[in-house]
Specification:
Helix content: 55-70%
Structural class: mainly alpha
Strand order of the largest sheet: 1-2
Length: 161
């Protein structure tokens, strides 16, 4: 007999590894749970009718109902748990798919982060600019006003406010 649990092949291991197979499996289990829930609803109605109809000599009209309440309450709690299980299975299938999508996107995100970090560490070199903002009488790009190169250029470069 094998002592290592990882050496034995389990069909659910294959299902857990594939998000689509897991979604199909969980949908099948959910379908079974919903069928059980319908059967339990029918059982709860039939039980209610039977228990509330059981009268003991000397009972008042509400005694049978009071005796039936704990059983009805418990069946209602079981139904609630079954419905919660079915809902949880559906959420699990969606979260499993989201997990796979996130894992598939992770290498690209890490690569982008690495590139951004490298860019931040070593910014690209920019061409040096003339510190006065002038270059042979031409306006430096990005400045809002032009600077005249001599007194005779005052009329050409004047801008209105």
């Amino acid at each position: 007999m094998n002592s290592d649990p990882f050496e034995t092949h389990s069909p659910l291991r294959d299902v857990a590894a594939n998000p689509e197979a897991m979604a199909r499996y969980l949908a099948d289990v959910q379908r079974v749970l919903l069928d059980i829930g319908r059967n339990l609803e029918t059982l709860a109605m039939e039980t209610r009718v039977h228990l509330r109809g059981t009268q003991v000599p000397g009972d008042r009209f509400y005694h049978a109902r009071l005796r039936a309440l704990p059983v009805e309450r418990q069946l209602k709690a079981v139904l609630s748990h079954v419905n919660d299980l079915a809902e949880g299975l559906e959420k699990t299938a969606y979260k499993r798919k989201a997990f796979t999508d996130e894992v598939n996107k992770l290498p690209k995100l890490r690569n982008e982060k690495e590139l951004a970090k490298a860019r931040k560490k070593n910014p690209p070199l920019q061409p040096s600019q003339n510190p006065t903002g002038q270059q042979g009488g031409q306006q430096a790009p990005g400045h809002g006003y032009s600077v005249p190169t001599n007194i005779y250029d005052l009329g050409k470069n004047r801008e209105s406010a």
